């Protein structure tokens, strides 16, 4: 039993004790493990756990430079390397975010929505509010995106039929907004693919890795954590397994861990007051305007860069939010009339 695991028992926190036991077990079965470091707070805890249980020092750490990163994150990576005596390999994005946005389009609202809009734009869709069969005839190779546009997907939760998250109506008045205001700029979800996913996949191949570790928590919510059911996924093709050491940690468990092990996060949290790090000013963030105000104050060059890269998306989102408010007001007025 590792010393770190024995120490973890002192916390009396089940998520931490259980997490350490699992980390020891998963790592003991891996020969070529890779650990992704983002510089964010979850990743800080993952690194602390993994470094504590990696007695053979076989884990390789890497960080992907998406081309839109905080200065504070880069400083934090230097701090982590010194603190743990490790090397964090800096990997360049296959295509940095600014290039992706220029070439393919800007992200808007969410990954899924951006993907469907991108598909429709590729088919020169005219943003028509017509029935699905009619649209399928006009745009025959665009079925999934048209099903999203026409609200063809439903889900059942507790016996209640609801609009699925794969339907446009899940985002209130988005369809009405887009019909009235067709986007005049390219929208795409490609920056996640070229700036984040592909470089990680290439690295796994290059190192012939049998295990990839990332800092995803169930409690963080959103599509990223929803795409996993548990902390470990076995590769179907005997390739690289995936392990999420803090998957079951609540916010409370995180706090206990940070205090118990003295984990220090980056200045993005401690000085800027950001709640999350990740890509600077990503339009998917529900709190992007608040984040931009903070970025403007602490890293003004990055603020200017984000404004240039995501300008159309920010503007279109702002217009959509105003449209939502206007529709809400109108609905209320017509109910009261
Ligand atoms: S998180 Fe946002 S900015 Fe970062 S790569 Fe994905 S879409 Fe682009």
Structure description:
- The chain is an alpha/beta fold and 337 residues long.
- It folds into 2 domains: 3-96 and 192-264, Rossmann fold (3-Layer(aba) Sandwich), CATH 3.40.50; 109-180, no CATH class.
- Helices cover 52% and strands 9% of the residues.
- It has helices spanning 3-8, 14-28, 41-53, 71-84, 97-103, 111-122, 132-138, 143-149, 174-180, 190-207, 222-226, 251-261, 267-270, 288-298, 300-336, and strands spanning 33-36, 60-65, 88-92, 154-157, 160-163, 211-213, 232-233, 241-243.
- Strands 3-2-1-6-8-7 form a 6-stranded mixed beta sheet. The chain has a two-stranded antiparallel sheet with strand order 4-5.
- α14 packs antiparallel against α15 (300-336).
- The protein starts with a helix and ends with a helix.
- The mean pLDDT is 93.
- Bound molecules: iron/sulfur cluster.
- Iron/sulfur cluster (SF4) binds next to α10.
